[in-house]
Design goal:
Elements (H helix, E strand, L loop, with lengths): L25 E2 L10 E3 L11 E2 L14 E4 L21 E2 L2 E2 L9 E3 L7 E8 L1 E11 L3 E9 L4 E8 L14 E5 L3 E3 L2 E3 L6 E7 L6 E6 L5 E2 L8 E11 L3
Parallel strand pairs: 3-4
Antiparallel strand pairs: 1-12, 2-18, 4-13, 5-6, 7-18, 8-16, 9-15, 9-18, 10-11, 10-16, 10-17, 12-15, 13-14
The structure holds calcium ion (3 copies).
The site of one calcium ion (CA) has 8 residues, from strand 3.
Length: 245
């Protein structure tokens, strides 16, 4: 196969893509030493939106309150197997995380008008870290979190979340893209933008104490944007790393 001719770069906007060229989202693994058990926190009782479009999937919400949706990899809103359509993997695995059902509710979405604290029970145990898989729509946000230990003590933390189109330079400290260069549906139309990302945020847990739950303190959340229902915080998964003693 002969090499493709070089393309002049465009002024602004996404970098040029060749029609028919296989596109690959950029993924990054969270480093977890071999043999460290992972604990997948069950968020299913807390999921309140479906922001991932796949085939035969009629009822969805938006990721940003505007018109934005993620897709399953290869699905462009009309057909599957489109090599230009970068989306979430069909096996639901992003780095160490496991996503919810693409045809069901699959994110816990928090917006400025949501002020009820959300308590999430975790499998009781000694954790070294908790990892949050997030992305933001219509701006950035920060949600304070309280870790609750079985001895009645608590620990404060923060889960920052950047806009799904943000890249390094725009990201809040601790926000790491783990799947980047995705496409989206916007107002019902496929957009081959190769830009949205899912991000990981890692919190350190006191492994001397046994963790039983965390509470998302939504009333104290901070949003970069309050227009058009404000910035949207979307939590896809929480995975813990067990403490090895
Ligand atoms: Ca694409
Ligand atoms: Ca869906
Ligand atoms: Ca990006």
């Amino acid at each position: 196969m002969s090499p493709e001719p070089s393309q002049p770069s465009s002024l602004g906007g996404p970098s040029p893509r060749l029609v028919g060229q296989q596109e690959t989202p950029e993924s990054l693994e969270i480093e977890i030493p071999d043999g460290v058990p992972l604990i997948h926190v069950d968020l299913s009782a807390h999921f309140n939106r479906d922001v991932i479009l796949t085939t035969g999937d009629d009822e969805n919400h938006t990721l940003d309150g505007q018109g934005g949706l993620l897709v399953e990899d290869g699905y462009d809103g009309v057909r599957t197997g489109n090599p230009q359509a970068q989306g979430l993997p069909s096996d639901g695995r992003v780095s160490i995380h496991r996503l919810g059902d693409y045809k069901g509710l699959n994110v816990l979405q928090i917006r400025p008008r949501d002020i009820r604290p959300i308590r999430v029970e975790v499998p009781r145990g000694r954790y070294a870290t908790l990892h949050f898989l997030v992305t933001g729509g219509n701006g950035d946000s920060r949600v304070p979190i309280t870790l609750h230990y079985t001895d009645g003590t608590t620990q404060e933390g923060l889960v920052p979340c950047d806009d799904w189109f943000d890249d390094s330079g725009d990201l809040q400290p601790g926000v790491i893209p783990v799947l980047n260069g995705l496409d989206r549906i916007w107002l019902g139309e496929f957009q081959n933008v190769n830009d949205p990302a899912l991000f990981n945020v890692t919190l350190t847990v006191d492994s001397e104490r046994e963790l039983e739950a965390f509470v998302l303190e939504t009333a104290e959340a901070i949003y970069s944007n309050l227009d058009n229902w404000g910035a949207h915080f979307n939590l896809f998964a929480v995975t813990g790393k067990e403490s090895i003693r």
